[in-house]
Amino acid sequence: MKAHDVMIAQVYKVKETDTVRQVIERFIDHGISGVPVVNEANAIVGYISDGDIMRYIGRPEFGVLDTISYAFHVRVDDNLEPFEERTKRLLSLNVMDIAQKKVITADWDEELEDIAAILGKKRIKKLPVVRNGVLAGIISRGNVVRHSFKNLL
Fold it and tell me: Which of 1, 64, 95, 128 would you label with 44, given CA atoms 20 to 30 Å apart?
């Protein structure tokens, strides 16, 4: 089975010129947690997920290793901008300011077992599918599981 046999062709996506506000609105409106970022030619230039947003608004902490007890202690930066201000500032940023720019993709004719290996090894939830250099669909872990076992159960 190939990627194009399993993928969802109707992909929620955002443009590289969109703001994070527009991305979060899309997440809320459609109950999704990540989308490919595309340019005018519909080529993938990034991927943004709720994890990227969490990393931005979460409290930056740093760890210190105690070399005597080998215990790892977390220290919080007390000079941090307040949470509400960080979240408000995030909304006006361009999506590419926080999106992942190195996007792992699957080719249109990629074998399902190779897609399963990529999703498992890289610990990612969704894999954009490309055909002739442009976004053609998306495959999630759930798609792979459903298609892999539907005739066996």
Answer: 1
Residue 17 is classified by DSSP as: T
Range of the domain at 78: 3-149
Domain total in the chain:
1
Judge contact between 126 and 144, C-beta under 8 A: no
Cβ contacts of 109-118, under 8 Å, gap ≥ 24: 109/2, 109/3, 109/4, 110/2, 110/3, 111/1, 111/2, 111/3, 112/1, 112/2, 112/3, 112/5, 112/6, 112/144, 112/147, 112/148, 115/3, 115/6, 115/139, 115/144, 116/144, 116/148
pTM above 0.85, yes or no: no
CATH number of the structural domain spanning residue 35: 3.10.580.10
